[in-house]
Amino acid sequence: MKRYDLTEDGYHRKFRTDMFIVHIVMYLDRWIELSKSDKSYEKLKDLIVREQFVDACPADLATTLREKDLSTLEKEADLFLKARNRKLCDQPRKVFQGNARPRMDSVQSLEPEKKFNGGQCAREAKTSVADQRSCFKCKKSGYITQYCTALDSTTKKAGAGVVVKTTEVNTAEVRKPAEGPTMEVTDDLQSEVEDGMLKLASEKPVTVMKNCAALRDPEKTRSLGFPVLKGEIGGREVDVMRDTGCEGVVVRKQLVDVSQLTGECCLLLRIDNTALLAEKAVFSLRTPYLSGEVKSLCIPDASCDVIVGNVEGARSPEDPDMSVMVGAATTRAQAKR
């Protein structure tokens, strides 16, 4: 019977912890029966008070009392405390509710008993080992270098955190020409751009030009209805489109010399939800919408030679300066003579 916890103390614990009324009544009957107490009020009160006292007292005193006859509870408790020169009020006692009825492991401890299974021990051991790890880079504990946020782009692989259908957009700080495939972005990056910057998954911001109409398909570009006029770059006649939604200037890369490239890159977000890394270049141009030295993005698959966006000095689509091109035509005619 003791092996299966079918004793007075076993039924007492089940009575305290069970949540079903039928079981509680059955456990109470068996507890009273095995304690050899009458079912009178005084006897039941004495039984409950004794068990409550044993549950609340220090563990060593509770063990001693359970080894004795609980009918002489007060006498045995007094003898125990007197022999050890102790008082029950020497240590503060916690009041526990519900199923939790912890015991004191010693006079100095009031920590509740904990029951662990194999899975809990394994998880706690794993957590303990992880907490002891430290980062080689920043010397902080709790994680390893792979997850350190203090790493720069030279020691940690950076990604834009942008999921695309073909690959991932790398950081715009890389010094690579925009020769790779154009990627169609599945997320709406336009709404994530703040003050011309897009924050990568590595928490590093990159420069972004958004809402550009430099589409790959000329038919789609013409369907947008943007005005297109003639202009000039380095003595070559080019088509110039005025895009009122773009935030910069975009030029076909074939029209720019290598010496005019700055070595910097910028992430270009087009209105068809495609993303492309574009190199920056500085050159002079003459167009009805914008003339002088400009900083532009260069892409190989622009649908128009030059796209002028809303930059400083750009004229509105309804107010082009055609005299610029008249002067350019006169200069070319004089050069032919």
Could you explain how this protein is built, in words?
The chain has helices at 8-17, 21-34, 41-56, 59-67, 73-83, 118-132, 218-223, 323-336, and strands at 183-184, 197-199, 205-212, 228-233, 236-242, 249-252, 261-270, 274-286, 291-299, 306-308. The longest helix has 16 residues, at 41-56. The protein is α+β, with helices and mostly antiparallel strands and 337 residues long. It starts with 7 loop residues before the first helix and ends with a helix. Helix 1 (8-17) runs antiparallel to helix 2 (21-34). The protein is built from eight helices and ten strands. Helices cover 28% and strands 19% of the residues. InterPro entries: SCAN_sf (IPR038269). It comes from Plakobranchus ocellatus.
Brief overview:
The chain has eight helices and ten strands. The chain is α+β, with helices and mostly antiparallel strands and 337 residues long. The longest helix is centred in the first third of the chain and has 16 residues, at 41-56.
